[in-house]
Amino acid sequence: RRSAVQDERVAAIERGLANIRSRTAVVANAPGVASSATRLVEAFGTLEDETLTEEQAAEVQSAFDAIVDSDDLAARFTAVGLAPPTELTPLDSSSEYLLYHYVIAPDDDERSALADPGDGSEYSEVHAELHADLRAITDAALLDRMMLIRLDDSRVVYSTDKGLDVGASLQNQSIGERSLADALEERLLQVPSGQSIVLDFTPYVARFGEPVMFTAAVIRDGQAPVAVLVGEIPVSALNDVMNVGGAWELIGLEETGETYVVGSDGRLRSDVRGWIEAPEGYLDDLGDADEAAAIR
């Protein structure tokens, strides 16, 4: 009985990952996405001449300092044996400009829907025209967030839900995501049109060290690659596959059984039943203050 449940959960994960890869490839090949990506890449290049006031630049740097000073960031990186960044700064004036107008200045409840911050830039003109449609495509594909990455330097030229990685380069060891950059450099461009890849969970600095799984596909205009589409997959997506929303008995786990995913490094990739049912009690039972602090 236990073996049958295990086999079914393994099959469910395989189906779930195949579904994620399929949805990502569909978005990358959706009508209008290639032209939208091309226009946003070109518009991003026009930001080199845009500048902020000293006060605006200070606000952007303050947001980066808040990440470095966050207890969550340090705990999440330390929990998986990684050293958290000790200093963060915007990559250049283009990144700084986008961060201020699309992340820092807007209110939290306005940020994701913001189409035009009213700064008068060519980038914002293009963004205003394309943002709603790109968000709708992303939502329909059930992706948590979608980013567009410039090919020549792995810069994040656009995201549907703006974070502190806007304008950053994936190659940047501090704010960027190395596994994505490595995949782009080493194998992503060789992935055939209509296919995508999924990358393992990793702590992501721009999300204050929260573990994020990425899925990626090349956007092509005909046969010519124009950008990379990256989607974020939260831990909750894997939990849903493994735990069926807590309906344990429905999948044969009865009152105490559980299934969870462990990576090749021996670390959990999905939440365990004890944490889902009673988080505080589970942490108390760990008996490891540092590990409990990382989870909290």
Helices and strands in order:
Elements: H1 2-28, H2 33-45, H3 54-68, H4 71-79, H5 93-104, H6 122-140, E1 145-149, E2 156-159, H7 178-186, E3 197-204, E4 210-221, E5 224-233, H8 235-243, H9 273-277, H10 279-286, H11 289-295
Antiparallel strand pairs: 1-2, 1-5, 3-4, 4-5
Helix pairs in contact: 2-6, 3-5, 4-11
Characterise the protein shown here.
The protein has 296 residues and is an alpha+beta fold. The chain has helices at 2-28, 33-45, 54-68, 71-79, 93-104, 122-140, 178-186, 235-243, 273-277, 279-286, 289-295; strands at residues 145-149, 156-159, 197-204, 210-221, 224-233. A five-stranded antiparallel beta sheet has the order 2-1-5-4-3, with helices on both faces. Helix 2 (33-45) runs antiparallel to helix 6 (122-140), helix 3 (54-68) packs across helix 5 (93-104) and helix 4 crosses helix 11. The longest helix is centred in the first third of the chain and has 27 residues, at 2-28. The model has no long low-confidence stretch (mean pLDDT 85).
Give a short overview.
The protein has 296 residues and is an alpha+beta fold. The protein has helices at 2-28, 33-45, 54-68, 71-79, 93-104, 122-140, 178-186, 235-243, 273-277, 279-286, 289-295; strands spanning 145-149, 156-159, 197-204, 210-221, 224-233. Strand 3 (197-204) and strand 4 form a beta hairpin.
Number of strands: 5
Strand content: 5-15%
Oligomeric state: single chain
How large is the radius of gyration? 20 Å
Q: Number of DSSP helices?
A: 11
Coarse morphology: globular
Q: Please state the average pLDDT score.
A: 85
**What is the rounded distance between the termini?**
34 Å
Helix content: 40-55%
Main β-sheet, spatial strand arrangement: 2-1-5-4-3
Q: Which class of secondary structure composition applies to the elements?
A: alpha+beta
**Strand count, sense and closure of the main sheet?**
5 strands, antiparallel
Low-confidence stretches: none
Order of helices and strands: HHHHHHEEHEEEHHHH
